[in-house]
Amino acid sequence: MENITQVHGITKEELFSKLQHIEEKLNLLSKTAQKPKKYSVKELAEHCDVAELTVRNWISEGKIKAERLGRRIFIAENEFQRALTEVKSLKYQRA
User: In the prediction, which pLDDT does 93 show?
Assistant: First the structure.
C-alpha cells in the first residue's frame, strides 16, 4: 500500500525548493558534526618531516596535547593546528 501526502497552498516548485534548502542545511550540519581527524605519532612525524622521537618530545613537553588509546598515541588535527599557531606567535614575539 502506498502512502500519499497532500500539501495545500504551495506550488510543486516551491516545495522542491524548500526541500532542497533543507537538504543543504542537513549536509552542512553533518559536515560540521564530523569528528576531527586524528594522527598517529608516525603520521604526524611524516607530515612535519621530523623524527617520531621529536613528536613524542613535543607531547611530553606539553607543546601538543595527545590522547592514548591503549598503547597508541593520537593527536587531533585541531590540536596540532593550535600548537602550530602558538609556536608561530612565540617565534615572532618581540624580545
Answer: 57
**Cα Rg for the chain, rounded, in angstroms?**
24
- Which letter does DSSP use for residue 19 in this model? H
For 8-30, b/e burial (b = at least 16 CB within 10 A) is eeeeeeeeeeeeeeeeeeeeeee
Q: What pLDDT does 88 receive?
A: 58
Strand ordering across the sheet containing 67-69: 38-40, 72-76, 67-69
22 pLDDT band, cuts 50/70/90, is very high
pLDDT of the residue at 89: 58
